[in-house]
């Protein structure tokens, strides 16, 4: 099969990657009371959740919260030539303690849609796009090509990490900054994504080690390590064990493109972590979640640890914490808190929202969510969404492009406490959590850079927002203002329970039929 020329969309997508500074995987909030959490309290920061915006549609500069590093060629994994890219060995836990966390056991069928020009879809090197959800053959528990049975996934901007039933960590997508946690060197002739050619076809192939779901070698972890949850950021990934330990790999980037992961056990600076390493200083963790370039981890006693880039006050403390740290405690009981970027009201706090530099310097209690019993919460570049225990889906933040999937009523549009207009007198920001109608009672929601995917209790998926890479799964590259049901031949008769969203792709999943 001859492969089509890599489009300019891929060049831009790699260059922009995911500017998300919020969370790439929807956080499922524990229903138990937490008595002493830290300032960076939510398992999500609703700052700017930058998954890469579509490249068929010109992206305003304020859609990109921070410029990620540019990948000029589809190259194999860079080789370390300096101590700054040193790979440390995952240390064996001295005393892991009893199990705190239990993994689910139901394998999922995984359906992918959108652009996979950087391997995001995991369909292999010969399939790089689809506008309707397709089952991933490598992750189909009943398929002839199946390699893995997964029960949990997390989408980064251009990469995905998954946990399998037999305790493997599987990754696919872009590996320039080691987000896949494994060696992707390949001896084939790689396609130059920056080649300027008017030909329809182009020599070279796509790296199968990035474009195909592949497990991180078990030797990267101590024996008897059992994983229960994974989380993906822009260029980093993390895995939580049943005993409350966290392993991580990849790198964090600041707004200037500087990369750093942390320090090794000898105190030496590590620019990029190629293989999984135990994160020191934290234990008894029950939940983890990632933004583009920061991580939050919830401890069993209610404290929240955060590390990574803090340029938009995502962490509530220093500008760059490359090691886990806590801040002042706040009460999470019956409350939802948010901090960081609020330029479109994406943090859910109306006061001061709307300017390009609007920030919440520390977590603030969000009005309208405290009594809602939020169980799932997620954020895109400039919008956020949450699901309550009663099945309501609430959305807020940037309106244009259909990111919220809501058809606002005339009374809402006239209410200055709810809607803020731009200089052209167009609705710009939704300042309060607002009910998303038309999708039914919700069980899950996921925010991409500029789109949102909803899952209702009937197991149906809906999508709205920017669609220029086909990431909405609606059969076109059009933007959609009001959420519409996602349908495809592969989804017929399927019941969905989960959704994830990256920059130019989406994933939905449900129990195996």
Automatic annotation (TrEMBL):
One of its GO terms (molecular function) is guanyl-nucleotide exchange factor activity. The keyword DNA-binding does not apply. Residues 44-53 have a biased composition (Low complexity). PROSITE patterns: RCC1_2, RCC1_3. Residues 1-106 are annotated as: Disordered. Residues 1-12 have a biased composition (Basic residues). GO terms for cellular component: cytoplasm. It comes from the Eukaryota. Transmembrane segments: none annotated. Pfam families: WD40_RLD (PF25390). InterPro entries: Ran_GTPase-activating, RCC1-like_dom, RCC1/BLIP-II, Reg_chr_condens. RCC repeats lie at residues 108-166, 167-243, 244-301, 334-390, 391-458. Keywords: Guanine-nucleotide releasing factor, Repeat. Residues 110-317 form the RCC1-like domain. Residues 18-39 have a biased composition (Polar residues). This is RCC1-like domain-containing protein. It comes from Fusarium zealandicum.
